[in-house]
Design goal:
Helix content is 41%, strand content 8%. The protein is an alpha/beta fold. The N terminus is likely disordered.
Length: 273
């Protein structure tokens, strides 16, 4: 069955998600069901720093806030998008370098929708560990986050006693905290839709999700994308499950304290940008 997306009023779709949550598959899923082009990550050489955040932009936002460099990137990107009938990009790096803050005050905010894509945190962390995603600082700078940034919500002290798996677990919870934070702060300016990637593989859930975009009928399910070729060992998998079962992290409470303190993710903690 061929579907057509209702391009009004939500024509521009982005994600607010951690890495390894299914954003590549989501792009294929949306393209198949909405009958429009969907981009996962623009990775051509000329895209970095122009359409795709580069390391400098990612580090600038998370350490210094929404500087002129960051705002300029988003002005350019939104200007390009505004000329299109619809635009879908499931790139998970966007929301880690000022997407939400800049989209909220843009001319296309009322036409935009943010898909909060979730995955079981334990499974996310197993993927990070098996791929060694947090073993190299440049990977953290380009694709994830580092606990050394000035602008984070969760204190790393909650996780540092976990050894080498502490950083990926911190990241998974930090992104969950940012999802909560952005919904609390920007729900009047932007529309948010929350979905779990595992639920989208079920016909009933997928149909309900697509109905938010005016799509009716049986969902089209594309093949799995960007799958992990070397999962963690059974021993490591069991260890991660045990670690999570012993954690007590109240994200809502942590985010509430962060907001009450007057902190944001787009201001320099030093200069008040």
């Amino acid at each position: 069955m061929t579907h057509e997306m209702q391009t009004n009023p939500r024509s521009y779709l982005f994600t607010l998600s951690a890495g390894r949550t299914g954003t590549a598959w989501l792009a294929d899923f949306l393209a198949a069901n909405l009958a429009v082009e969907a981009i996962h990550e623009p990775l051509d050489i000329a895209d970095f720093g122009v359409r795709m955040p580069d390391i400098k932009l990612m580090r600038t936002f998370n350490d210094l806030g929404s500087t002129e460099l960051v705002r300029s990137f988003w002005r350019h990107k939104f200007t390009e998008i505004s000329h299109l009938k619809s635009y879908i990009e499931t790139n998970h790096t966007l929301a880690k370098c000022g997407l939400i803050e800049n989209l909220a005050v843009s001319d296309i905010n009322h036409k935009s929708c943010i898909i909060i894509l979730k995955r079981r945190l334990q499974d996310q962390c197993k993927s990070y560990i098996s791929r060694h995603d947090f073993s190299n600082i440049t990977l953290q700078w380009q694709w994830y986050l580092t606990h050394h940034y000035n602008n984070n919500i969760l204190p790393f002290e909650l996780f540092e006693n976990l050894g080498f798996i502490g950083h990926p677990i911190w990241y998974a919870f930090e992104m969950e905290a940012r999802q909560v934070f952005y919904q609390k702060i920007y729900s009047k300016e932007l529309k948010f839709i929350e979905e779990n990637i595992d639920d989208l593989n079920k016909t009933e859930n997928a149909s309900q999700f697509l109905s938010a975009f005016g799509i009716k009928g049986d969902p089209i399910f594309p093949p799995r994308a960007n799958e992990q070729s070397h999962p963690v060992s059974p021993e490591m998998s069991a260890y991660v499950e045990t670690v999570f079962s012993n954690l007590s992290i109240n994200i809502e409470e942590i985010v509430a304290r962060f907001i009450d303190s007057g902190k944001t993710l787009d201001q320099s903690p030093h200069s008040g940008i």
